[in-house]
Amino acid sequence: MAYIKTEEVSAIRNELKKRFGHTGLKFGVRKMHHSSVHVTIKAGPIDFSDLYKDHYGSGDHYAQINVYHLDNYGKHQPLFEEILKIIKTAPALAEGGREWFDKSDAMTDYFHTAFYINLNVGEYDKPYVYNGKKAEYDPNGLPLNFTDRYHVEEVA
User: Fold this and answer.
1) Threshold 0.85, pTM exceeds
2) Residue 88's closest CA among 117, 66, 68?
3) What is the largest CA-CA distance in the chain?
4) Over the stretch 100-136, which tens digit does the pLDDT of each residue have?
């Protein structure tokens, strides 16, 4: 049964702050119904306007990210992959915590996962706040100011 403890959610929040705190990205991390974690990118120096869908001309500034198909998000893919990696591994740092797993089998209608993950850029009632600083990207696809001691560069 999917279940996530408050301590595990707190560990995710702390690791996101540790990894991205100096970059200007602001996150909201919350537990919903004891079975899922919702991570929202609230503000920062990255322009996500290419991800927003125009809902009948409403000018919404939010996007729901499909964590199973991160390859759909172009230049933002490496950032979302890094965030997802933290969401999956950080709960193990909490006392009695565990890493994310998925032992589901849709063929037999059996669903068994550690917890469900929702990743958003902004929310429908609180849009993402782009602070106007232009982020430049490195060859790995991460914004330049994101490469730091917590990020391991892959050597070709």
Assistant:
1) no
2) 117
3) 49
4) 988 988 888 788 889 999 999 998 888 888 887 665 6
